[in-house]
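Q: I have two molecules that I believe assemble together. Could you output structure tokens for the complex as a whole instead of separate predictions?
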Amino acid sequence: MTVSQEPVSLPRRILVAVEGSEPSLRESSMKAASYALQLAAASGAEMVALCVVQIPEYIEENTRASLRSELFSKSEKTLADVARLASDSKVKYDSKVLETSGAIATTICSFSSKERIDLIILGTRASTSSLTKMMLGSVASGVASNADCPVLVVR
Amino acid sequence: MTDPPEEKGTAYVTPHSVKIESREDLAFVLSEASTLEHMIMCEYLFAAFSLKRDESEGLSSAELEKVRGWEGVITMVAVQEMTHLALVNNMLVSIGSAPYFQHSNFPQPSRYFSPNIRLALVPFGEQALRHFLYLERPEGMSIEGVPGFEVLGDLNPAELKGGIVPRQQYFSTVGNLYRGVQKGFKDLVNNQGEEGVFIGANHTQATEERFGLPSLFAVKDLASADRAVEGIVEMGEGARGDWTNAHFGMFLRIFKDFMDTKTSNPAFRPTRPVVAAYARPPIGVENATIISDGFTSKAADLFNASYGLAIQTLSRYYVHESDIPGELQVLADAAVSIMSRVIKPLGMVLTSLPVGGTLTGLTAGPSFELQYREYLLPHRREALIVLQERAVELGSYARELSADSPSKQTATQFDGVAGAYKDIAGMLSVDSLGI
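A: Yes, here they are, computed for all two components at once.
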């Protein structure tokens, strides 16, 4: 079998996708962010942290407002923690919170394409049940399947 | 979005675009109408279940009275949709077809209907009411698309061409679909004669006497088919444009009352924080909300299993072929009992239970999920055994949920459901019918 020898360049823009809504997801997100920062520092890349807030499409407007407020507040808290990590490094850093009623993985991939990201890094948690694993693991596998750049999953 | 029309008015009738040239076409369109009525009924029940029912949920006594009034009207409209569903199935049976009670999972992104018909389970509120007004709007009345329910595009013209296989057809309103059905019946009778078209049994059809639903009668000839269509259209959009006392007019009054109340008291919150939620990832739905809370997940399963049993019992009613006295009435009573004594209380209790996980504060609305298998039980004795066995199982499950309930109030609701299933299982006994 012949494998093409395309030159591999170091990433210039790294996206780390983080989650703040659940403690276990937050922990794995911080692990992924820390890994991403070290890699960015070593390769001289910029890093963007992205938190996607998923809100169901068909809910009543007041319910939507309070859910949005709570999930955005949690996301901003997680991103503030990532920003603190980033401030200790010399990595150029930016962050973003996006809202979707669609799939989180699709939103991450669209953002990545639009922002010309070279590498996506995200965490995954050790799930206790197969259903949880199937549901929460689906973000990592969805991104891995649909991204148009390399994806690195941190355990 | 344009504002809904004024309180009184008329609308003109547009020409029908539904084309029916054969029995196969008619059965196909009636099955589509059945699915539509069924899903709309679920939407209305969902909205009714989402309303608060107690002052402890943050409503004043005056507000609670108002909310109860709205719930009563929406539930009444849902019951009338059940009548439409039964009438459509009477029409199907009248031409020799099987009843049709299937539907895909919510939300329905208009893959099977006209591109202007999208269906979703939405809690009571402005979006839900505008959507209901859109669905029930009279022919010729223009209401722009509701956010979240935008028209997805036109049908491919190739889809509209006739052929040996029935095709999806375009209809502008629900009334427009039924006018097409009405003309289809008439054209078929012109070609084949009444005896040639109405070949189905009329003694197995749903009637007011059996189900207690007003305006429900057997379809056995062109006159009764015509009357069925007129009844459905009049209940929805009014008699040839006079919609004041039809579903459209009723929803318009609720909409205005709701908006006025909200304007005078911006803190008014009549709805529980409900989202339609599934116990596990459903077939054909992307990004469905999945219940994380273990107890709620079991309660949602009990709701959907009970809904499935009601559909199975109704389907059995329509294919009934026997002269055992009382058998039809037993099936009708069992189906009605499941709807009123099981599905209604379960729907109300479910919307008070947490979804769990990341959706903090949200509660679980019923998903009305049907399993993807055939509900028809064709053999008499076996059917009753299967139905009774399932009623016993579901009653036991309700008792287990009562024991595990997070509150006394919830436990009482599940005890009620268990008691209802005991009665239903008793009704369905083969011994009591002498089979």
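A: One point stands out. Chain A touches chain B through 22 residues (CB under 8 Å).
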